[in-house]
Amino acid sequence: MQVHISEDQSRSFAQAGGALLQNFLKLFPLGSELGQVWQSLLAAHSADPSRLGTLQTAYLQQQLALWGSMLAREPGKPAGPVATTDKGDKRFAGREWRENPYYDYLRQVYLLNSRFLNDVVETAELDEPAKHRLRFYTRQLIDAMSPANFAATNPEALRLALDTKGESLHAGIRHLIEDVKQGRVSMSDESAFEVGRNLAVTPGEVVFENELIQLIQYQPATANVRKLPLLMVPPCINKFYILDLQPENSFVRYAVEQGNTVFMVSWRNITEDNLGGLTWDDYIADGVMKAIEVARAIGKSDKINALGFCVGGTLLAAALALLRARGEERVASVTLLATMLDFSYPGDIGVFVDEASMASREAAIGKGGILSGRELAFVFSALRANDLVWSYVVNNYLKGKTPEAFDILYWNADSTNLPGPMYCWYVRNMYLENKLREPGELSMCGVPVDLGAIRLPTYILATREDHIVPWKTAYLSTRHLKGDTRFVLGASGHVAGVINPPSKKRRSFWRNDHLCASAEEWLVGAEETPGSWWSNWNAWLEGFSGGVRAAPKKSGNAKFKAIEPAPGRYVKVRV
To answer: 101-122 vs 128-144: helix axis angle to the nearest 10?
Structure first.
């Protein structure tokens, strides 16, 4: 088979591949404190060479066993595996990886090499933070070097190239060039979705806007509504419509159908230079606090119920602590979804945060500038590189296929820029120095705040496989919030565990109304319930409804009039 690639295609392919590699190498800041961690690994094994020698001996024996297995293999029959693929690893699902001796050998050699590298890290006597970093970066290297990621060593890609007479390779080159132009790996067929057409279509109107937010009020779906409105604060590092995807999996639609008057914060996508100086205090005062004020005014209620998701939950809790410090009672209950308030164990995201990298970031954008949403999106994807990076490299570039239409992954790629001062303050004070958990250590809008002063009924949801907010870290919030708290653990991950409508009858959740000293102890006593946590949350929220009243006939009021239909302008700005 001959595949003709023009000189221009070859040049474009090389440039695109170089750009992709450059993005990947950003994960390995060897000039920072991480370089010292690599050196500490070498030093740890140099201090006791016997540990490394034992690993090397075992590794050599496994390689010899693999080689012997291949030599003894009968023609047309698979050999007994020396190294087996982990359950759930889809990279080597194709039959060629087992039936063809060459590719079977490649697969098993790779698995043995991977396990040897992991063992080298695990047996080193290092402190836990250093070992955590080494685990993460070793995993990145191992994932990147999989033979499935390269055209010459992926039998499925080669077979497809033969079957299509090279068209799959041509299509893969086109996809790679297109993705480099847009600065990210495509994870979904983006032509299948459009915000306002088939995403974020729950009826409503924008009833307030300033330079930072638009506030959406959704139209009622019931004749009577709960008296206390419900305000949702989504993460500012993503678009709000993760909570309002398609009608069948829209959390907003569900909440409206339960009789809530729902308000939604839509954060501005910071693209203009004059907004690059916005601070954390701006996000509190002009974002969360302003939204609470408007929702109360339109809802004709002294108090509202409030919900925050991810960093939106962190912002909401900070605003509630500020209200409490001012002696203001504006909220009746609070719901925190996949939220960190205590950053003691931030998971793999903590790998990217150290004093050296933080100082560099502060020098660059700490006083003004923009943190690219694409950069943040790439970091989050790297936390699950096999699922969110390499599987699409193989599908899109090696096999030349267009990714399937998936609303959550479309949203995941719709990234949002952040102002530098706000981002730097947040990362330093939360991730690096973990000050929010300490009473009075942080001041917001000029007032010292204390999470312990928040004495509200609280519903906390964490998800068991969350790679952004580890569930045991989310559980730490129960130590700091002093109100009556219900902690619920959902199945799946950061997004799929939250967006789990009851109608799908999927997954499950765990509940234990006794808050224990540790997350592990809590889980031992928890009861698993099949299905979605949404129904459990709705029953809990009903206790803070304030009664019912006739549904409003129109959005807004005399002061805050409807500006434009939902989902509004701000959410449609893409970067």
So the answer is: 170
